[in-house]
Design brief:
CATH superfamily: Carbon-nitrogen hydrolase
Distance between the termini: 39 Å
Number of strands: 14
Bound molecules: acetamide
CATH topology: Nitrilase/N-carbamoyl-D-aminoacid amidohydrolase
Strand order of the largest sheet: 5-4-3-2-1-14
Length: about 260
Amino acid sequence: MELSVALIQQSPLWANLEYNCQIIQQTIHQTDADILVFPELATSGYFFTSKEDLMPHSIDVHCDICKTFHTMAREKNAIIVIGFAERDKDTLYNSAMLLFPHEEKPIVYRKTHLFYKEFLCFSPGNTGFFVVEDTAKDVRVGTMICYDWRFPESARTLGLRGADIIVCPSNLVTDVWHIAMPCRALENKVYMAVANRYGTEKVGDEELTFKGESALWGYNGAIMAKALPHGDAIVYGGIQPQLTRSKSFNSVNDIFRDRRPEMYV
Ligand code: ACM
């Protein structure tokens, strides 16, 4: 069965939760796909340098807006993944809400590897890497966020846990990830879906530029679809999750069975 994936490339307004959530809502309304992926911190904007500044733009995953997004996922029968600044009592996490049409509640992945000044606002994620299965669509979805890509263990863990597709809400500020993502796809035989934001944000005299080029790679590492570096875009691709499940690539070798973990650090 082929499933459609939509990678949403946007540029959220910094510290404007209400506006960003409206745009996300509109985009969900207008987008028909089995899996929709939004960028990292799509609700809040990215560049905060204190917990106090970010706190008013963070949300609890049980809040009304998350419930609304989840209701939309049910109505559209779509899996929706949205990066957001998550508040859990006094703690902030750089998280993704995973909205599955047949799950009762939103599921949360909290970014494992914090990047640059994120340490000033967020606590390191404590959920670990996990895979969620949608049995109706017959797809197993693993999530990592942006800088998690620099650690091959992230994608490997998701691959070993049975992911067919790794979705990666991102706010990438370099270009080197274009080298790594297809490798992560190939070496784990999984689809790799990066929804990246574009635009700039400035704090004091420091400016960050986000690189766009949201992209989908096939399980053999081939690029399937890619957005431009700048501008709103929705990148679509079709995936066949079942084709990722045998890890063999000839009559002898199987990339998971051939692993020799006792030889690794
Ligand atoms: C990043 O993790 N936002 C680069």
